Amino acid sequence: MHAKAVVPRAALAGAVGGVVAWLFALVFAEPLIQAAIDYEGERGEAEAALDAAAGIAPPEEGPEIFSRTVQGVWGIGVGMIVAGVALGLLFAVVYTLLQGKVSVRPRVLALLVAGAGFLTFYATPFVKYPANPPAVGHDETIGDRSGLFLVMVVGSIVFLVAAVFVVRALRERLGLWNAVLVGGVAYIVLSGILMAVLPSLGELAANVATYGPADSETPQPLRDPAGTIVFPGFDPDLLYSFRVYAITAQAIVWGLLGLVFGALAERATGSASVETRESVQA
Amino acid sequence: MTTAGATARARATATTAVGDMPYLIGSLVVGLLLFYFIGFDEGAATSLFGNTTVVHEFVHDARHFLGFPCH
């Protein structure tokens, strides 16, 4: 299949995944996101009350550019669909480059590439730096967090490419099954080393200075100077549900990208071979 | 696998790759740009559009839900 035919089909398949992930998000994610924003607001009030008691001026609020409705209905829709298209375009590059080199039918290759995308762009980075709802994550570390997340994404991609080369090198000697097992172990070990080397978010210097040592940026209970809890920590069940839904949404995007593109590609290559046969006969 | 077959396949792959290049590069660049705008632009208070937060605020919920760093 020519790249000219692959790219629009992959973009369309990614958009389909994005639309379904958007609908999923409206039902499952938005109530949790709103609950997290409410927590953030109430916690802010509790902090302001503590600050006022200690004679500290409260921090200034940033201006609200978009209403919660715009963000929670349309913003998340545009975000999910554009993300789906972006991932579809990157998928198209890998699919085009691989299709001549492997002897599997298009829909199988499509699912393999989509699975690799899910693994490297999301699942592996998630193990180290999981998705967080609003209220979890400090403003002052967003630059560090962006950089660290990107390192995990790029690292995962590099490691999977390395693992594929390992499989290719060992296939003749070990057989495909065992070569893939060795490649999989190589991927896990390399990813594990990277995760061990990178700092957890709680270990960032800015966080240790402000909040003391911690594993993550999840808000802990708020205490007054006497040590009494005046506001609870972030709801762990909310955090768990948000992350499960976040993983599900990614599985929807990548899964539909692979399945829809696979179906489109089989139809395109099927009709192409029919055309070739007809032109040969004519 | 005969040498002739391998050569023919290599030639076919090579010619396809040459015709594919503009589409592959375009797809890669646009894909990475969109990925950047959804996930990272205005994240660390920097933007290709200058010092604004419009993109960040509009896709705020998606950024959280897609697992990108946000606040």
UniProtKB/TrEMBL annotation, chain A:
Q: What is the lineage of its organism?
A: Bacteria, Bacillati, Actinomycetota, Actinomycetes, Pseudonocardiales
What is this protein's record name?
A: CbtA family protein
The record's InterPro entries line, in alphabetical order, gives: CbtA_put
Q: Known Pfam families for this protein?
A: CbtA (PF09490)
Transmembrane intervals: 73-96, 108-127, 147-167, 174-198, 244-265
- What keywords is this UniProt entry annotated with? Membrane, Transmembrane, Transmembrane helix
TrEMBL record, chain B:
**Stated name of the protein:** CbtB domain-containing protein
Q: Which organism is it from?
A: Actinomycetospora termitidis
Segments spanning the bilayer are: 21-39
Superkingdom of the source species:
Bacteria
List the InterPro entries hit by this protein, alphabetically.
Answer: CbtB_put
Please provide the record's keywords in A-Z order. Answer: Membrane, Transmembrane, Transmembrane helix
